[in-house]
Structures are given as C-alpha cells and as structure tokens.
Amino acid sequence: MARTKQDEPNTHRTMHVVNHIRSLIENGTLQPGDKIPPEREFARTLKISRASLRTGIGYLAAMGVMKIRHGVGTFVADGPPEFGKASLSLMGALHGFQSWQMFEARIILESHLAALAAERGKEEHHAALAEEVAEMFASINNPSDYLIHDLLFHRIISQASGNPILAALIETITSALYDKRRKTVERSTDLRESAEMHREIYRAIRARRPMEARKLMEQHLRMAQAAQGMERPTAADRKAQNGAAKGKQARLAGVAS
Amino acid sequence: MARTKQDEPNTHRTMHVVNHIRSLIENGTLQPGDKIPPEREFARTLKISRASLRTGIGYLAAMGVMKIRHGVGTFVADGPPEFGKASLSLMGALHGFQSWQMFEARIILESHLAALAAERGKEEHHAALAEEVAEMFASINNPSDYLIHDLLFHRIISQASGNPILAALIETITSALYDKRRKTVERSTDLRESAEMHREIYRAIRARRPMEARKLMEQHLRMAQAAQGMERPTAADRKAQNGAAKGKQARLAGVAS
DNA sequence: CCCGGAACAGAGGTCAGACCAGAAGAAGTA
DNA sequence: TACTTCTTCTGGTCTGACCTCTGTTCCGGG
Lengths: 257, 257
Prior knowledge:
Two copies of one chain form a homodimer. Chain A is mostly helical. Chain A is 65% helix and 3% strand. Chain A contains eleven helices and two strands, in the order H-H-H-E-E-H-H-H-H-H-H-H-H. Chain A has a two-stranded antiparallel sheet with strand order 1-2. In chain A, helix 9 packs antiparallel against helix 10.
C-alpha cells in the first residue's frame, strides 16, 4: 500500500469546492480579506447545489482559511495564520491533552522563535517590540491592557522569526491558552518583573544574540508557567491523585520510585 | 453565560452539534474509533435538521476529530492526533509557506522531540525503535518500504516524547511533506547512511542522552533537507528569482486534483 | 458443498426550493 | 441634520425526495 490511507473519491463536491477556491487563492485571484461571491450565485457558477457549496465553504472555514459573517458575506481569512480555533481544544478533549503539555510545546517553539527573531528580525520589528515593551510598562497597573501588549509582543516575535509556519503553530497554542492567561494576569501582583523580562528579551533580539534571546524567553515562559501552576506533574503528584497508573511513570523530578 | 466570551451567536446549530459531540467525548461516552448514530436518527435526537447536523459533523471532520466513511458511517478519529490533513497545505497556499520553512519547523520540533524521548522514553518505545531500525536496514534496497519504516521510526519518537501536542504538530507537518519525501527516497541511492543515522539516534535515546539525541536528529534532518534541495534560500538566491514578486509558485505539495 | 454474482438494506451525499435571521445601506420623517 | 424605519442582500435552517457507496444476505450454478 504505497498510497496514503484514503484517497477519498467520496465527498466529491466538497473537495471540488475546496480545490476550486484553493486554486483561486494560488493564482492570486483571491487574496486575504477578499470576499467570495454570494452562495447562491457561486453555486450556480460551479453548477452545484447551494448545500454542497456550503459544505465546502464550511470545511475551509473550519480550518481557518475562510471566515463567514452572517448577513455580510464570506471572506478569505486575513489575520495571522492559525489553525482552526477550536481545533486544539477539540483534539485535547479527544486525546487528553494536558495544560503542561501545551505549555511545554509553547516553550520549545517560542524560545526557538526568539532565537530566530534575533537572527532575522528587521528594524521594523525591533521598533514594534520596543513599542510594546513601553506599553507594558505603561500598563503595569492594568492587567487586561497589559495582557494585550504581552500578546502583541510575542506575536511580533513570531513574525520577526521569518517562519510563518512556526508562527501559526504558536498562534494556535497561544489562543488555546488565552483564557487561562487572562485569569492569571488578573490576579497578578507583579507585572513589573514580567515587563522587565520582556525588555531583556527585546534587548537580546535587538542586539542579535540568538542564544541569549532563546535562554531569556525560556526562562520567562517557565516563570509564567509556574505562576499558573501548570508545571508538569511529578511522579509524586500523580501518585497522590492517581492511585495506580500502571507503568506510567517516567519521572523527571528524581523522586525515588 | 458560562460559555466562553466570544461565542459566535451565529452558526448556532453547528456549534450546538460540535459542543454536544465534544461533551460526549469528554465524558467518555464516545471514544476514538466509536461510531456515532446514523445522521437521520442523530438529527432527530438533537431535534435539528439533518442538514444542520451534517454541517456540524463536517466541521469536526475537517479538523480531523471525526472520520466519515460514505456508505458505512461516521466515526471518532482513532489514528495519531493530527490537525486537518489539508490544513497546512491550504494555509500554505494562503500565506505562501515555503518548503524550507516547513523543514525548519520540523527540525526544531523533531530534535526537541528526540531529546524528550531520550528523557522519557520507556522500554516499549526502545523496543519499537530498534525494530524499525532493523527493518530499515532490511529494506535498504526498497525505497518505498524504507520510507514507511522511516516514518514509523519518527512517529514512535513522537509518542515516546510524552507530549501528544508536539506529536500532533509534527504529524501535521510531516504529512504535508510526505509526497516530496516519497519522490526523494525513490531516487535515493544511499539509504544505508540514512539507516546508520537512525541507528545512532536510537542508541542515544536508549542511552538516555537527550543532548546527543537532539544533536543527531538535527544533523539527520539537515542532511535530509539538503538531499531534497529545500534549504533556506540565500539572499543571492532570492535576488535571482525575485524579478516578478507577485508570481507565487512552487508551494508545498498538495493533493493532486 | 462451495463459490460468485445479484439483490437488499443501511448509511452518507446531493439536490431543490422555501423560509428564517442578521447586517448594511437607502429612504423617509421629525 | 439626525434619527428611525424599511428594503434588500447575505448567510442559516428546514424539508423531503432521490442518488451513490458499502457490506451483507441470498440464491442458483458448478
């Protein structure tokens, strides 16, 4: 069986729609932000029923490629690339993702991103980062404002990394983590320290010191993780709350078996 | 209003279906591989039209949470976690992802994964890895067989890392890269060297030497990347082909129409 | 008794057209 | 001029009929 599992000849119409729109995007006819024709008209054009067209559009919308606005129209997504919003959360429910795992993924990706940003970042990125750091210091007493600039800071680093795929990955994870972060920030009492760390990261990036940026980012995120109590549970933790998980230890903490 | 902030009031029914199935999964009523009721019956149960139900199911299917088999039924996905298959490819078309970027993402993720596998891998993983290495050596003269074991080897490392999220990320990228890899392997003349590298990686993981595993994996992937001519273009390269800026071609491998 | 093809039933896929609901802009009114 | 209402465009939902694919059952010929 050389072929991939399933070349699905079924769902013809749906894939027909998907491929059609895909080609429109590839040849530049459709660009981010553009509006596609009304369903009734588009369906007539493609010679398929409106229902089938909607199935295809729904598929694209689910993956974040298109954005549907009731009463207005359907558009090609234009924000930062990101996989389906509910995607991670759904898969989490299905495969039992844990918070610490999301955070671990984030730390790995984002610290590398910081290093890449230090290597490849341009002046515009440096300026934007400086701007956000300043805003952070300015909103130290306003947690929700602070969080916004925090998010922007990290997003700019993603862009500065020059790798939109990694940026999309991070974006996906971050958006799934957003709710929790907000709660944490609300009760956070020392945003100054956090702002300082961001500033240091910014400086490392601006000075083009990848290793340093990477290290600082990692340190920053680990601290954030700790603040939210999302560390990887130790063997002891799990034993305490899990009775007997057969053969499921693999501890790191070094607690005696 | 126990729900999340930005609940889109539109797409009511769709989200209703999604959330319903989601809760069925979360409370264990539905597990990977399970079949959901026939559309007509399920629609009656939820008191919505079959069309709306299908929209919701389509949404879940697009994200890889459900798998639909024409003439048979609809099931909860059971394979390795992965985001929507066409997802990356579609987003690539939209945001102009480049092959070297996918590879860069893969290198970063997978080398860390190797390190984690070295830290957390269990006996069963070690055994499975050894098995695949052996198979690789056995199929040195059969490229397509070799590729299968190569894929399995990397997938086992993903599992051994103990972080299903990172595994899902890798799986997504890898599947998008699959077509290209197949072509490359077909004309590859020296699979022995590749097999040797896999063996070394395996040894490092088994010996629980994270740093070494990470380094070897990175080295291995960079070599693979070079073999496929997917390095990051240099400034000179870009200048050479940058004449027609708008013409966007040569994106990631997608499903042939 | 075994085998292969026909028929069947169950499940998803598509279609048609009518009607519901949100949003934006035009038209009317104070 | 500024506010309100109405029209119209766009997506959302419903209904119920019919098509296609798949797996299973059944039956006749070898």
